[in-house]
User: Which sequence fits this backbone?
């Protein structure tokens, strides 16, 4: 049974989430503060974590960082903080998704299902096919109906990072660190230039990208 850990100090919300998720067959563990959540995760490692940012003892970002130190489970952040900076901090700390309060239960359930699907181990070096192009991660090759697409090493590396996380928001800092290195984590202009190049080569309409999508101020998402 898929185990979901929920860390939130809103007891009414905890109860509602426990009832809703349990009714759908999930094994639900709850904690009302950050320390309790981290302890619960260490006792019974979860398959997915839902964590609030506004906890009474620890900031939710600290909890996300603590979990990411040893766990690869998807993390969905819940928060009443709507500021872009809060979202960026949570995603850079290792969260996989960010849901602002108030939210619809159906939306949260959909995000839980999506996060669990993404966490399912994929075949080694998969071939990812879209309606416009195919990415062969094993052979480092991109093709369209017209044939092979010539990418520079940097363009390929950027596409590869996004393609290995399909449908997942990848933050600016993560992309810059993985493609250019830690000294470049603030150089977001690099991303704009190279994403524009990739879109010109791969998107049917680069001005209205369908596959290489921008999450303004946060990062990018590859949607096959």
Assistant:
């Amino acid at each position: 049974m898929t185990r979901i850990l929920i860390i939130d100090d809103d007891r009414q919300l905890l109860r509602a989430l426990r009832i809703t998720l349990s009714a759908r067959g999930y094994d639900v563990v709850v904690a009302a503060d950050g320390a309790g959540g981290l302890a619960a995760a260490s006792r019974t490692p979860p398959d997915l974590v839902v964590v609030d940012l506004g906890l009474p003892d620890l900031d939710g970002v600290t909890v996300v960082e603590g979990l990411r130190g040893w766990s690869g489970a998807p993390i969905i952040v819940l928060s009443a903080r709507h500021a872009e900076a809060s979202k960026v901090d949570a995603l850079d700390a290792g969260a996989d998704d960010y849901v602002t309060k108030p939210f619809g239960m159906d939306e949260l359930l959909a995000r839980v299902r999506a996060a669990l699907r993404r966490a399912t181990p994929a075949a080694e070096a998969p071939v990812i096919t879209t309606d416009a192009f195919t990415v062969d991660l094993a052979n480092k090759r991109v093709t369209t109906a017209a044939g092979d697409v010539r990418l520079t090493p940097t363009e390929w590396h950027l596409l590869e990072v996004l393609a290995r996380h399909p449908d997942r928001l990848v933050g600016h800092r993560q992309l810059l660190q993985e493609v250019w290195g830690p000294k470049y984590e603030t150089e977001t202009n690099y991303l704009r230039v190279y994403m524009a190049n990739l879109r010109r080569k791969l998107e049917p309409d680069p001005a209205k990208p369908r596959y290489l999508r921008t999450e303004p101020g946060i990062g990018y998402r590859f949607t096959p």
